[in-house]
Amino acid sequence: MKWPRILRWSWRILVADMLKIAHINSGYGDVQVLRDVSLEVLRGEIVSVIGPNAAGKTTLMRSIVGLTRPRAAEGGGIFFEGRNLDGLAPEQIVRLGITIAPEGARIFPDMTVLENLYLGAHALKDQRRIKGLLDRVFRLHPWLADRGSQLAGTLSGGERQMLSIGRALMSDPKLLLLDEPSLGLHPVVAEHVFSAIQAINQDGVTALMVEQKVAFSLEISARAYVLENGSIAMSGPAAELIDDPHIKKAYLAL
Amino acid sequence: MSLTIQALINGILLGGVYALYSAGFCLIFGVMGVVNIAHGELVMLGAFAAYWLFLLGRIDPLISLPISFGLLFCFGYILQRLLINRVVGAPPIMSYILTFGIHLVIANVALLAWTADFRTFAVPWAGTSLTWGGLVIPKARLVTFVLAGFVVGLLYLLLSRTRAGRAIRSTAQDWEMARLMGINVRAVYALTFALGAGVTGVAGSMVSTFFVIHPQMGLQYTIVAFCVAVLGGMGYLPGALLGGLLLGVVESLCAALLSPGLSVAVTFFILFLVLLIRPRGLLGRGMLE
């Protein structure tokens, strides 16, 4: 039976999770990285995925945006607002409203700051909307407005990260993926980045974040998952996980 | 003295020709990392387009330039979509093999269709020269020289100022991130190859007004385009202008002052030195493999 469109839409917007990952396996060639991973992100949340190096965090992010093709068990898969992302190309997935600030920022170094931001809005047509999004990014990082014509490759690590997040916001995403936004940053700068993420979230953008700076990320997250050796080892509200003995011992060095 | 100046002028004009047909080669390599060994065939097809349009339609090559551009643009687009897309991102040897195969197929189909005859055609204005104080400037080459600057400038503006240009440049820098910006990189590659082929078609049309054309002419053009790209920096578009001019001037001065037979040797010696000392090209802006 085919549901009327209005019902399907309201299901997607009101009932379905923002992002639901059910029983996926993923890897490169013969190397399996993720094993039976399930997680969900609700509308308006910040959710963290924490875990040691090589646990599969980046692979998880790449699987969501379609750069790595996950294999799902029967009935499993990656669902965005109730829609199965299986078989969609990255450029199609991004147009649905998911965007990523990838590991290491990966801004376009030979282009200016402003060009990087405009590329973030490449999928949009409406010039007034793009202008509005640009204003939002400039409100978040006012320094970007003065450095518009600077080559992005000449920015510092923290600036690159903020540009990367700004670029991601230019696509007006519903869900923002953040892959280690604090990687390689001075703690003061990292704190700056985290407060920016919090501000973005209060502006109505849902966020799924992969992080190694566990204390910071749990502090701003509603819930968290612990990814170890390619599987979800623990999950729960961030406030509970922060007091968990295993987390304290393994990640917070307490 | 006037011989040297004349040789210098000839060299600069020849350099313009080189730059014009190397720009497309540079663009394609810069964006896709594909060394297009069939590049010279695009020059040949552009030349024959002008030839037939003049012979059958009595259209002046200058006026048929947009037609050559359009024909080669479409041809390049189809070639990229059907074949070359399959080797983008693959190890370089794959693109060498594929484009070498394309080179053979186009050259031999052309041989079948048009025979191995050497052809020239006389466009009234193209055979004449400007003379000034004993110096001779052939009009056709002067027009080609101006066109080279114009075309490279136009390509540069397209890349730096337009939305499509932004998409092309971002794909060249990081194609995975470009996809995450919502850019269809396959379409970008096809557009890039089509543009490169179109510009090369224009170059071929101009070449046909002062060089002999025949179906097997392609390979020598590919080799020169490769040299120009190495001199200017692989994949760096303004480098094509510089590399082309330098190559033209060196060749022409060698031929006039030393011996015509030595000019190729000197060219390759300079190429060798550049690869040794400045592998990123004279301006240091090109790519290393």
Secondary-structure blueprint of this entry?
The complex is a heterodimer of chains A (about 250) and B (about 290).
Chain A: H1 5-15, E1 19-28, E2 31-41, E3 46-50, H2 57-64, E4 71-80, E5 83-84, H3 90-96, E6 98-101, H4 113-120, H5 127-140, H6 142-146, H7 157-169, E7 175-179, H8 187-202, E8 206-211, H9 214-220, E9 223-228, E10 231-237, H10 238-241, H11 245-250
Parallel strand pairs in A: 3-8, 3-9, 6-7, 7-8
Antiparallel strand pairs in A: 1-2, 1-4, 4-5, 9-10
Chain B: H1 2-32, H2 39-57, H3 61-82, H4 92-114, E1 129-132, E2 135-138, H5 139-161, H6 163-173, H7 175-180, H8 185-207, H9 218-232, H10 237-258, H11 263-277
Antiparallel strand pairs in B: 1-2
- The helix/strand series of chain A, from N terminus to C terminus, equals HEEEHEEHEHHHHEHEHEEHH
The tally of helices of chain B reads 11
Number of domains of chain B: 1
Strand order of the largest sheet of chain B: 1-2
Most extensive chain-chain interface: A-B, 23 and 17 residues
Low-pLDDT residue intervals, each spanning 5 or more residues of chain A: none
- The number of helices of chain A is 11
Termini separation of chain B comes to: 43 Å
Features:
heterodimer, A: 254 residues, alpha/beta, Rossmann fold, six-stranded mixed beta sheet, four-stranded antiparallel beta sheet, 39% helix, 26% strand, B: 289 residues, mainly alpha, ABC transporter involved in vitamin B12 uptake, BtuC, two-stranded antiparallel ribbon, 73% helix, globular
Description:
The complex is a heterodimer of chains A (254) and B (289). Helix content of chain A is 39%, strand content 26%. With 254 residues, chain A is an alpha/beta fold. With 289 residues, chain B is an all-alpha fold. Chain B has one domain (2-277): Orthogonal Bundle (ABC transporter involved in vitamin B12 uptake, BtuC). Helices cover 73% and strands 3% of the residues of chain B. Chain B has 11 helices and 2 strands, in the order ααααββααααααα. Chain B has helices at residues 2-32, 39-57, 61-82, 92-114, 139-161, 163-173, 175-180, 185-207, 218-232, 237-258, 263-277, and strands spanning 129-132, 135-138. Chain B has a two-stranded antiparallel sheet. Classes of the chains: A alpha/beta (254), B mainly alpha (289). The interface between A and B is medium-sized, with 23 and 17 residues.
